[in-house]
Amino acid sequence: MSFKTKRYFTIAVLLFALVSATVGTPAVKAQQTSFALRSIDGQIVSAESLRGKVVVLAFGASWLPLSQSQTQGLQRLSETYRGAGVEVFFVSTESERQQSRNYASDDQLRQFARRNNLRVTVLRDPEGQTSRTLGVDQVPAIVLLDRQGNRAGAPILGLNPNGNFVAQIAPRLDELL
Fold it and tell me: Most buried pick, 21, 86, 144, 156, via CB within 10 A?
């Protein structure tokens, strides 16, 4: 057997072994999300406590120009899916450190929610750990979690402030229900 023939034979055997090893094996299970965020009312909401529900995490900040339209759309989304096993949250990425330029107190976030008629639970991710874990690198952004607690697709970015927020999110939500 020539060197060239041996090389092709070796490559063929390796490819066959690789394909044989993967055929019939179950797909790797998606990794469950793990987080625990504090609400502005002091409650802890964890990924574990939300298992069995489809979850909408809307990451944003009260100072964003899109905040008013985002919160109005988020509230409509919550009302549309009420009773369907969907939990909707606004997640503030603002700092809890008073010396920070991006600071917002719990009271300021409560006022923000009242001013924008936002009645969903407001959570805090002041260090950005949860947003980074979920692949959020800009706000506003929406992350959907399936009933098993897995991130369902990439974060939804580029929210249209004049568009129909519910229509933008609904197709992905409906797939998860």
Answer: 144
